[in-house]
Amino acid sequence: MLKLISLLIMFIILGLTDIKTKKINIIWLAFFGILGISEKIYLGENIAEALLAGVLTWIILYIISIITREKIGKGDALLFGITGIYLNIFDNISLLFYSFLLVGVFSLIMLVLKKADRKTEIPFLPFVGISYLLMQLNIV
């Protein structure tokens, strides 16, 4: 329950910031990263596994960010590094997949309705938050 509350608060704060500024606040990310590690210690869970999940996801997405010239931002890569602390590697990859799926469907709808073009930047973090909520409700 602690993980659920922490992640939902993180997605709300960072999602609103991403919508407003198109940037992810690194201070909030650091705060939630430290909070996630603290929760693992408090609950007696495996910290090494949590850090490995976070670091692996972050490295992969960071490399993709460089290759794609930040079509996936470095902040998004770091976000999934932080979610990896809270989630196991499989849930973190599922979260990434569902987030891409949702933003892809949204983008397609916006293109069809001619409300956006291929160069329109869409904040990604709100879709991560929605995907996490859908995962918790067992909808996806």
Describe this protein with a few key phrases:
140 residues; mainly alpha; methyltransferase activity; 6 helices; 77% helix; membrane; aspartic-type endopeptidase activity; Prepilin_IV_endopep_pep
**Can you tell me the residue ranges where pLDDT is under 50 for at least 5 consecutive residues?**
none
Question: Which percent range fits the helix content?
Answer: over 70%
Question: Helical stretch count?
Answer: 6
Task: Indicate the proportion of strand residues.
Answer: under 5%
| Overall pLDDT confidence | 93
Q: What would you say this structure looks like, in words?
A:
Residues 6-108 form the Prepilin type IV endopeptidase peptidase domain. Keywords: Membrane, Methyltransferase, Transferase, Transmembrane, Transmembrane helix. InterPro entries: Prepilin_IV_endopep_pep. One of its GO terms (molecular function) is methyltransferase activity. It comes from Acetitomaculum ruminis DSM 5522. This protein has 140 residues and is mostly helical. It has one domain. The chain is 77% helix and 0% strand. Helix 1 packs antiparallel against helix 2 (26-43), helix 3 runs antiparallel to helix 4 (74-86) and helix 5 packs across helix 6. The model has no long low-confidence stretch (mean pLDDT 93).
